[in-house]
Amino acid sequence: MPYQKKYLPLLIGVAIAAGIFVGGNLNFSDSPDRLFSTNSKKDKLNRLIDYIDYDYVDEINTDSIVDVTVNGILDNLDPHSVYIPKEDMERVTENMKGDFVGIGVSFYTYKDTIAVIRPLENGPSEKAGIKGGDRIIMANGDSLFGDTLDDSDIIKKLKGPINTKVNLKVYRKGEPDLLDVTVKRARIPIKSVDAAYMLTEKLGYIKVNRFAESTYKEFKSALDKLIDEGAKEIALDLRDNPGGFLDIAETIVDEFLEDDKLILFTKNKRGNIEKSFATSKGDFEEGNVYVLMNENSASASEIVAGALQDNDKGTIVGRRSYGKGLVQREMDLGDGSAVRLTVSRYYTPTGRSIQRPYDNGNKDYYDEYFERMESGELLDPEKIQVADSLKFTTPAGKIVYGGGGIIPDIFVPIDNSMYNETLTYLQRSGFISYYVFEELEKDRHLYDDISREEFINNFEVSDDFVMSFQDYLNLRTSSNITFVAYYDEVKQYIKATLADQLFGNGAFEEVFNQRDIMIDEVIKLSEEN
Q1: Which partner for 301 in 101, 241, 509, 528 could form a disulfide, CB atoms 3.0-4.6 Å apart?
Q2: What is the pLDDT of residues 185-209, one digit of tens each?
């Protein structure tokens, strides 16, 4: 589930699988030496694949050979030129488009049955009466239970053309018979704004998890809401945000920068330069902004931070960002697959490239994250390596550096109390989520009279609740997992997960952020202004 992936110090590889499809006709009357002719590079690969198809002694899936070949080609380019196989295109497209057509439920495959965690707010399932804890047993006569059914099979049965209906059989605890529920499929947003709420009377908070087609619309709605609630300053949380569409990042930056300020420029192999400037539409040009970043903030996230930092707008808070300064263009390959090929580099307004070196190959490039950990950079800003040759100066005289990510104005070390192997394992394994779900199943009505606001601000998870989680772990794992040293942190995770399963819509972040040292630092900076 979404919250199982949050707040973990994982290296987010910004790239998504890629390659080049090679095709063409083969004339077998040509001499073999033409296969290796220097002016037939494309034919060389085409012919080899066709020779294998027609003449190789065993049956071979040449589609898989093509995938291996094109990935091998791209491995020799840069880490972010990538191939998207046909079978992955729908998922990738939906993720970047920002929506899909479905029934709108968050669910587990729990004990071989679809268990609804909660229907999505204002979605078709909620309107049809689906509730948290419901089990969806059948869809249009097809069974949706059993050990052999995986999530992809379930999703295929629940998805369909927009405005079509799916007839569900639903088991609900306490009801003597299965319920018949008809749901009309609709567009379901894949949210890229996780949360938007007020941290203080003047400081609003917006968490953006990626830059998809729908992100600006979500962001603008969140910004307008916070302005209406009195926000004079905004904390824009881009931690663990791997990026996305460049133009979406530009439109978000435009909300903060004055007219005609340079946002960024790109340069391709021919030296052609394209510049992007702020327009007159910004609604938060006078307000202060804090951008929260960490080592997993990449690409479009760095465009936002770099544009604001280089224009002396606001404050960048956190740790050095990922360091991706390459621009990809998605190109259809005609067979349902696509390639995202690096076509240019982008530069921040002062002229710096923040792309990390990748001369030593992809493995070395991705392992650099672990080198940052081992060097102590995540705990001490003095350990950040900078080159004087990559020093730049903003209009206000602030020194900034290129060559490998955005270095924050205010450094906040990684919080080892919240990011350690035990907590990472508990979140990644799903144990906390399953435990909370099972506890809710005992009696969901216990929380009927608790409002979202009251739960977030005043509800206390009991010690008995937390200790029974330890018993839950002992019964379900062969290894001896104990969290005595991280008791308060686990308690916080449990409350945040409870909030998410009961209320959704950013409740996890509102609870979890109450122990966040980076947000505490932003609040402190805001109070000093």
Answers
A1: 241
A2: 999 888 999 999 999 999 999 999 9
